[in-house]
Amino acid sequence: MAEQNNSSRGIRILVGVAALVIIITGINLAQSVVVLLLISFFLALLGTPPVLWLKEKHIPSGIAVLIVMAGMIIILILIGIQIGTSFSSFSDELPLLQVHIREQVLELSAFLRSKGFSGTQKFLLDFVKPEVIMNLTADLLTGLGSVLSDLVLILLKVTFILHEV
What we know:
Helix content: over 70%
Radius of gyration: 27 Å
Shape: flat
Distance between the termini: 56 Å
């Protein structure tokens, strides 16, 4: 009897672990959809108080949602313009920034050599690669662009969520 109870407990633990693995794998595979959904819920949470306030002022819910969505779109367009101009100036200054970082690394190497450290120039140039730093920054900005491309789907979800409020 005790042996059967132990095997039953082992089976329950095994099924629980298997279910956990399946859930984690499912979330990992649905990552892009889940992220868009969470962004939509976040924006809907931000838009709910203004919609409720407009409803208190006896504005019909459809018009209240349109007003709030127009405000969100204007804010997102302004943020997009700011990111676009920042990305444009960053890409224009990229070669200059790479040269500037390399010069600073060489100055640090000269300083360390004057303090008695040897062989630091090659080590520092291998450790701090300006090209890699700039490429990572450019990839980050490209990732922001992909989020902005999903903006229409996000705003559509937010509109439906706010209509339900």
